[in-house]
Structures are given as C-alpha cells and as structure tokens.
Design goal:
The protein is about 60% helix and about 5% strand. By secondary structure, the chain is mainly alpha-helical. A two-stranded antiparallel ribbon has the order 1-2.
C-alpha cells in the first residue's frame, strides 16, 4: 500500500475508521433534521467522511500534508451531540499539515515527504 520504509499504515487505517464512524453518526441524524436543511446535512454527511477516505489514500501515497488538509476538512462531519469525535481528525490533520514527521516515521535512506 505504500513505499518501503514509509510507516503510515496505522494512520491510513485510522482515517478509514474515522470515515466510517463519522458517516455512521452523521447519516443517522439526517432524518432528525427538518425541512430544507435535510439535503444540506445529507450531502455533508457523505462529503466530509469521503474527505477522510481521501486523506487515507493520499497518506498511503506519501502525501501527508495533503492528507492533513483533507482530515481537517473531514472534521466538519456533522456529528451533532458527538462533536468530540471530530477533534482527533482536526488535531491529527493540523499536525500532518505543519509537521508530518511527528506522526509518520521514515526508515533511513527512504524518500521524505513531498
């Protein structure tokens, strides 16, 4: 799934888990929204978790900063009462944008982030 020496599998799996969890919580609340807002919430319930899937895909391809931006976007998933679930995606996304080496290790002699 990635290049040899690039240690980000745990982060890719975490992005996919967040996407599934966020989608489940968000889509479950769509029918509780009234009126015209239902369409907007429905779209947000799909688009923002999809950003987390995209984050996992680009992180697996050694693009952690782009993945970080997508994770920050995914933190806008409408989780309502469970808003605390969005915080790890926001924090990890910001760390990936600013200093990806904090979360992702490279073995000696492998290419760094691009």
């Amino acid at each position: 799934m990635g290049m040899s020496g690039y240690q980000a599998g745990w982060l890719v799996r975490s992005c996919l888990a967040w996407a599934a969890l966020g989608f489940g919580v968000a889509i479950g609340s769509v029918f509780q929204v009234v009126g015209d807002a239902r369409l907007l919430v429905g779209v947000a319930s799909v688009v923002f978790p999809a950003a987390a899937v995209g984050a996992g895909l680009v992180i697996a391809r050694n693009r952690p900063r782009i993945g970080g931006v997508l994770l920050v976007l995914s933190a806008a998933t409408p989780t309502y009462f469970a808003w605390v679930l969005n915080i790890p995606a926001l924090v990890v996304g910001l760390v990936l944008v600013v200093a990806p080496g904090i979360l992702i290790r490279h073995e000696r002699g492998t290419p760094r982030f691009s």
